[in-house]
């Protein structure tokens, strides 16, 4: 028990959250949600739209203080603080007025790293991902997949041990998406990161994760957790999709979600 | 007019960019040459028919002036030194008033991002000040600061200040929330969010206020000169108008147009410097259009 507590790098304890609405009172978004993420684990969260997935991420990253409950990162209550996780959002959010290398260095800049160190680290990472020749280009000249790669590098370069990915592939076409899934998965595994991925894509969740968490409809809470582990077994998201259990998981999770949708309609 | 000067600027930028020269250069210049040629033809046609109409007494030159009369008036005043004196007074007052008002207004407008409460408190005052025709303040300003150049600078500052403030504040409040959240997720402090996100993303708003302010500054200065002054283009136009000297009035009007165009060019240059990142975005698109 004690050992477990140490190995949980993120612990969401009984978190509830309400958004205040002057007309209809407060709207509950999350309801007594508890979740533990273990060291170096890849966990995906799927759930119906409006289940509060992004709200949960905003709470874990410290952008939002939950109405009730608490979040522990490495055993410490993160209330009122930010910067303890790497957070990659749905949109690439590259600053259009900054070049690629300046965008990549943003997190380091905020944390006070010297310009020479930012350049050096930035170039190093860009080289590794084959984007070196775009270092001085502006984001507007890059394709969607390249922009999302730059956003990923921007997250990695500050070297966070926990990374939150909020639907980072949703705006990309299918092929780019598969390539990026594979790429990001292998990088994160290699570097021993703990990852939480929010996605609408059940297939993506199964292909990439050790565990898949299914959330209920609003107010969101944990409905079901699946131990998948196909990506770890095959060492690849693409090959995980070919595993015969992939479809079983897909059906089970689809069912979990389908009931919600059915009730909503 | 504004658009065409932007076009000319694009041409200048393109010729400076070495990589895509071959493909975009040739059609661009042709278009630019065509544009200038047409402008020249139209201007010459208007001037010729105006002069002809006056010489054949189809129209009354006393009420309309004439191109040759305007040119004579221009030379006479230029040689006497009075014209340069007037131009200098108006340009100086406009430039100083414009710069002071626009810069202070932009800074304060951006700064209000720090305090939404203060922004709310002063909101009605700013709206009211924005609505008042600034020239209505001229009698007061002239009583306080005299009929010299300083009162014109003050008028132009006031006229441009409010516009710059409103525009900059609007830019600051329309900053993309998710960019701010991204900054915060990295642990950014408020001042870092301000300098790294709010200021750069508001630059287009600030620039557009600058562009509007050229006109407002000129209106304020010339209006002030109408009301009380001893020199300046506004003074010149006002005096000549009272004497029914239409040719001299025309000289003033044309010089004011030229002054406005020069100022637009300056702001355009500023824009190309500050927004070079969005130019690199717009560049390929315009070349496709051309």
Overview of this protein structure:
The complex is a heterodimer of chains A (265) and B (290). With 265 residues, chain A is α/β, with parallel strands linked by helices. Chain A folds into two domains: 2-85 and 160-264, P-loop containing nucleotide triphosphate hydrolases (Rossmann fold, 3-Layer(aba) Sandwich), CATH 3.40.50; 95-159. Chain A has helices at residues 2-7, 53-60, 100-104, 106-110, 115-128, 144-156, 174-190, 202-208, 230-234, 237-242, 244-264; strands at residues 8-21, 25-38, 42-46, 68-73, 76-77, 86-88, 162-166, 194-198, 211-215, 222-227. In chain A, strands 6-7-8-3-9-10 form a six-stranded mixed β-sheet, sandwiched between helices. Chain A has a four-stranded antiparallel β-sheet with strand order 2-1-4-5. In chain A, helix 8 packs antiparallel against helix 11 (244-264). The N and C termini of chain A lie far apart (42 Å). Chain B is mainly alpha-helical and 290 residues long. The longest helix of chain B is centred in the last third of the chain and has 38 residues, at 190-227. Chain B is globular, with a radius of gyration of 23 Å.
Structural features:
heterodimer; A: 265 residues; alpha/beta; Rossmann fold; 10 strands; disordered N terminus; B: 290 residues; MetI-like fold; 13 helices
CATH third-tier fold name of the largest domain in chain A: Rossmann fold
How many distinct domains of chain A? Answer: 2
Structural class of chain B: mainly alpha
* Main sheet record of chain A: 6 strands, mixed
Per DSSP, the total helix count of chain B is: 13
Q: What is the end-to-end distance of chain B?
A: 18 Å
Q: What's the helix and strand layout?
A:
The complex is a heterodimer of chains A (265) and B (290).
Chain A (H helix, E strand, L loop, with lengths): L1 H6 E14 L3 E14 L3 E5 L6 H8 L7 E6 L2 E2 L8 E3 L11 H5 L1 H5 L4 H14 L15 H13 L5 E5 L7 H17 L3 E5 L3 H7 L2 E5 L6 E6 L2 H5 L2 H6 L1 H21 L1
Parallel strand pairs in A: 3-8, 3-9, 6-7, 7-8
Antiparallel strand pairs in A: 1-2, 1-4, 4-5, 9-10
Chain B lengths: L1 H15 L4 H35 L5 H4 L2 H14 L1 H30 L4 H16 L6 H8 L3 H25 L3 H9 L4 H38 L5 H10 L3 H29 L1 H14 L1
